[in-house]
Amino acid sequence: MTALMSGGDVSAQRGLTGLPNSNKGLNMMRLRSFIPPLGMMLLAAGEAGAQAALIEKSEIRFGCRKMRFNLEGRFRKWKANVVFLPKDLAHSRAELEIDLGSIDVSNDEFESELKRPAWFDTDQFPVAHFVSHTMRHVGADRYDISGRLTVKGITREVLVPITLRKDAAGNSVAEGNFILSRSSFGIGEGAPEAEGIANDVTIRIRMALPPVR
Q1: What is the CATH number of domain 2-209?
Q2: Cα–Cα distance between 5 and 82 in angstroms, integer?
Q3: Residue 7: what pLDDT?
Q4: 50-90 pLDDT, tens per residue?
Q5: Between β-strands 29-32 and 2-4, what pairing exists: parallel, antiparallel or unpaired?
Q6: How many CB atoms lie under 10 A from the CB of residue 163?
Q7: Domain boundaries, the chain
Q8: Which secondary structure element, helix H or strand E, spans residue 204, and what is its range?
Q9: Residues 82/85/91/92 CA torsion (nearest 10 deg)
Q10: pTM, whole model, 2 decimals?
């Protein structure tokens, strides 16, 4: 089964919140690099066996504490290239490329700040990149994906636990999260705006595929 995944602009919940606390039977899943939605649909129609991913149900979000509040956001544009073979994990792989300039925290001024050198420095480092090197089954529908994450030219090892499940509509959904240390990548280093923002940021990933017809 081949699927095309796009993280292009979609309507999703946005949020800079001010609240105190605000498969089994899946034999093979392939997610090919995304291109804008219209082009994706044309390619899906022309490629034998292609299946369009459910863009509106897939996302990359992040969250952390800012003093007494929760800071939430997402990346609107990203690429996924994943081959997932539960019975052959040695030949499975996952690769993500995130357009850092597409950051969305529902605050234009802060978004502009986050693109500056002290934060993501998007002029010099426009994308973040993750590539897996090991996938391991840890029980039931749970898997650990180990790989290397590169942000601002700095590469660190990360572990991404994921869970595979079926939703009420029968779609296959992969969900996972991991902790990113801002200081390990020089994100917000020396920026006055970083005062009060937690060093640990939770990255949440969700990818959905429709059932095979």
Answers
A1: 2.40.128.110
A2: 9
A3: 55
A4: 234 577 788 999 999 988 889 999 999 988 777 777 889 99
A5: parallel
A6: 13
A7: 2-209
A8: strand 200-209
A9: 30
A10: 0.75
